[in-house]
Structures are given as structure tokens and as C-alpha cells.
Amino acid sequence: MSDDYFEYRHTVGFEETNLVGNVYYVNYLRWQGRCRELFLKQKAPEVLADVQDDLKLFTLKVDCEFFAEITAFDELSVRMRLSEFGQTQLEFTFDYVKVDDDGGEALVARGRQRVACMRGPNTDTVPSLVPEALVRALEPYGAQRRALPGRTA
């Protein structure tokens, strides 16, 4: 694993392909979510506990641009980086890299996801500062290695 991205490794299954044999597009978005979840589990378990309390991580926007097809049993490295860092929102980029048996790599897609931190009951959620535990966990994974406005480094 590189020090500037968090990596989720995935082997494509038949159930993730369409009738033609290509990966169905919605799976790329599922893999973004899975990568983000595993990041929280492995690098920021305190944030997961906070989510079980009243923190909500709302996905505001998600997209994916496709460069090449992948099929069942392809090995994929989903690489998440922090691209934007705000007081209450974060934006991640995801590189989808096909990894060959001989160690070769090819970028097959690139995605983006914007997330807002919110707190409160479902009928009355309000924006919330990105939790300090998440700030610390994300520090190695993006170019925005500066303190958030209103916070100390």
C-alpha cells in the first residue's frame, strides 16, 4: 500500500457483470462505498462508534468516469485519496486500477464522492464538523495536509 492512498483489493465476480460480461456500472459505486467503509473500520474505528451514536456521513454526490472494460475474475485495486477537506464536508477520489498477474497496472476508471458530516435526529439533522478522529485518520491520504479553519494542527 502506498502512503498517499487507502487501498481496497477486489476480485470481480460473475454477479457483478451484465449479460455481455462487462462489469455493470453500479458496482463501481458500490466499491467506492466498500472502500470508504473498510477505511473507517481499519483506520478510524472511533468514527464508526460515533456513527452508531449520532454522526451521519451523507453522500451528497458520486460519479465515475470509465476508461476501459473489466470482466469477471479481474483483480482490481480501488485507491481512495482525500481531494478536498472542508469544515463539514470531504471529497474523495477513487482510482480503479486493474492489476495483472505479472504486476502490471492499468487505470480503468476514476470516481469521486462528496460526503457531508451531519448530526441530530433524522428529522432535524444539522451540519457538523468533521470529527477529529477522521481528520487524523485521513491525514496521510491527501494533499490537504493543513489544519481545517478554526482548528489547530
Layout: helices, strands, pairs:
Layout: E1 6-11, H1 26-43, H2 45-53, E2 55-66, E3 75-85, E4 89-99, E5 105-119, E6 126-127, H3 132-138
Antiparallel strand pairs: 1-3, 2-5, 3-4, 4-5, 5-6
Helix pairs in contact: 1-2
Main beta-sheet strand count, sense and barrel state: 6 strands, antiparallel
The number of helical runs is 3
Q: Could you tell me the number of beta strands?
A: 6
The end-to-end span amounts to 26 Å
Please bin the fraction of helical residues: 10-25%
Structural class: alpha+beta
Shape: elongated
What's the mean pLDDT score?
90
Radius of gyration: 17 Å
The arrangement of helices and strands along the chain is EHHEEEEEH
Strand content: 35-45%
The low-confidence runs, each spanning 5 or more residues with pLDDT under 50, are 145-153
Summarize the structure.
With 153 residues, this protein is an alpha+beta fold. It has helices at 26-43, 45-53, 132-138; strands at 6-11, 55-66, 75-85, 89-99, 105-119, 126-127.
Fold and architecture overview:
The chain is an alpha+beta fold. 22% of the residues lie in helices and 37% in strands. It has 3 helices and 6 strands, in the order βααβββββα. The protein has helices at residues 26-43, 45-53, 132-138, and strands at 6-11, 55-66, 75-85, 89-99, 105-119, 126-127. Strands 1, 2, 3, 4, 5 and 6 form a 6-stranded antiparallel beta sheet that branches. β3 and β4 form a beta hairpin. α1 (26-43) crosses α2. The longest helix is centred in the N-terminal third of the chain and has 18 residues, at 26-43. The model is unreliable at 145-153 (pLDDT under 50).
